[in-house]
Amino acid sequence: MKRFLKKYLSLPIGFLLWWRHMCKHYVAIRRKKRYGHCGEHVILEPPILFTDQSKVFLEDHVKIRQGFRLINYTGTFTLRKYSTIAMNCTVVTGNHRPTVGIPQIISGGAHINDQETDIVVEEGVWIGINVTLLAGAHIGRGAIVGACSLVNKPIPPYAVAVGSPARVIASVFTIEQILEHERRLYPEQERFSREALEQLFTTHFEGKKSIGLTFISDEDRMKIASIAEAMHMEYYDVAR
After folding, report:
1. In this structure, are residues 29 and 47 in contact, taking their beta carbons and an 8 Å threshold?
2. pTM over 0.90, yes/no
């Protein structure tokens, strides 16, 4: 009997498991109606795994590369416009907390006394390869999270954060660069004021360097224009 089952059922069962994997990692992510929100011109590079798509909110012009995993139970994940998540990143919205008398193999699966928090990645963020975002993470606008970092707390806007746990080592731009950057990307009512930026720098970037550049070659301007057109980002004009 065992030989019969192995011979005649292994192939159908294998195909079923393969099909379930394909649906979960490749097919389901294309179905916009399953998301809490899925905007326009969203780029998703499978395989990607969302535990609960209904708690995923993707704004316009975002990109998630292959290997991304969202593990959530009640917590939501929001990715705001212009942000990119590199390959093999993991987001976990919950923390398991030990409970007296209950083994972890039960409390984890049953989510006994879990602490769940929503995780938000704000506008224009770059999250590097193999980054992990845990409950408590909130990535501020324009921030960069370096490769292989682990984030479990808020990261301020326009910060460069690296390490495990991540710490702020620099600002992405100077105040003047941020003002120009946001003038090109955001409507006036969405921009940071100079006063807010000065307070941000006093609080988080005192004595730290800025890594951003202003110069763009003519060749790069042509590349930017071509990519922006392909992504239907008609508002973007580096010559403004």
Report:
1. no
2. no
User: Residue with structure tokens 């019969």?
Assistant: 4
- CATH label, 35-230, candidates 2.40.70.10, 3.90.1150.150, 2.160.10.10, 3.50.50.60: 2.160.10.10
Measure CA of the first residue to CA of the last residue in the chain; give whole Å.
75
Q: How far apart are CA 172 and CA 178, in angstroms?
A: 9
**Whole-angstrom Cα distance, residue 228 to residue 19?**
36
Question: How far is 179 from 212, CA to CA, in rounded Å?
Answer: 13
Q: What is the pLDDT of residues 88-121, one digit of tens each?
A: 999 999 988 888 988 888 887 788 888 899 999 9
pLDDT tens digits for range 138-161: 999 999 999 999 999 999 999 999
Mapped to the 3 state alphabet, what secondary structure does the chain carry? Answer: CHHHHHHHHHHHHHHHHHHHHHHHHHHHHHCHHHCCEECCCCEECCCCEECCHHHEEECCCCEECCCCEEECCCCCEEECCCCEECCCCEEECEECCCCCCCCHHHHHHHCCCCEECCEEECCCCEECCCCEECCCCEECCCCEECCCCEECCEECCCEEEEECCEEEEEECCCHHHHHHHHHHHCCHHHCCCHHHHHHHHHHHCCCCCECCCCCCCHHHHHHHHHHHHHCCCCCCCCCC
The amino acid present at 54, given as its one-letter code, is: S
